[in-house]
Amino acid sequence: MTCTKQKIIDAAVFLFNTQGYNGTSVRDIAKKANVNAANISYYFSGKQGLLEHLVTDFLEGYIGILERAFEMQAILSPKEMLLMVVRDILRYQSENRHLTRFFYREISLDSMLIREIMTTYFMREKYYFQTIIQNGIEQGEFRKVLFSVFMSQLKGMLSVPYLYPQYISEVLHVFPSEEYFTRSYAKELECWLEQALEPKKQDRYPTLLHL
User: Fold this and answer.
1) Does 126 share its domain with 195?
2) What's the pTM?
3) Rg (CA), the chain
4) pLDDT per position as a tens digit, 175-196
């Protein structure tokens, strides 16, 4: 990636987070990046193209974590795979925290771009997680769960540090950008996964395959 292109991306992420997408102009981005505005059209075909690039770039990295985990099915159990995926997602989000914050804010909006993402990346994400959980149930590592509820809880916990960074830093006095927070949060999330999926003699819900 060229230096100019990266400067544009960094400037856009910063401004979209602080001023909002609609409140940021191409000139604002060019000024922040210290580049000619024509470069934004050259690399991204305008502000909308830049938005699509940022969202797609984040999701390519995110889905890549799940894909790499699936390549290790022969050596990892479903439980090991799930824990590895969650740890890697948290690390990925922490390393790209500004982009992550922007992404989670953006997908809360109802737009054509987000609807397209729902039918591509998020359906792939659902397939990967659903397969891991189903394999874990069949192998006796996980109890039977209602996948829609489980996934809603998991997605919520993965996104909270980036949806409410001011609350976490100003009220709870911890900082999601710090490595210590990421490690501690990962450990707590792993404990929740252990409890949520611990096998039981009687399951409350039908098997995942019938949902």
Assistant:
1) yes
2) 0.87
3) 19
4) 877 888 888 999 999 999 999 9
If one counts every other C-beta atom within 10 angstroms of the C-beta of residue 138, the result is: 13
Q: What angle do CA 135, 77, 200 make, to 5 degrees?
A: 60
Return the CATH number at 1. Answer: 1.10.10.60
Give residue-wise pLDDT tens across range 125-166.
Answer: 999 999 999 999 999 999 999 999 999 999 999 999 998 888
Could you give the dihedral angle defined by the CA atoms of residues 14, 111, 131 and 86, in that order, rounded to the nearest 10 degrees? 20
Task: List the domain range (segments joined by +) for residue 180.
Answer: 54-210
Structure tokens at 58: 């984040």
**What residue has token string 């098997």?**
207
Number of structural domains (the chain) is 2
User: What b/e sequence results for 158-174 when a residue is b if at least 16 CB atoms lie within 10 Å of its CB, and e otherwise?
Assistant: bbebbeebeebbeeeee
Which helix (H) or strand (E) segment is 172 a member of? none
Same domain, 96 and 16: no
For the chain, give the longest Cα–Cα distance: 65
Whether 71 and 95 share a structural domain: yes
Residues 98 and 14 reside in one and the same domain: no
Q: Which residue has the tokens 């292109």?
A: 5
Distance CA 175, CA 15 (A): 20
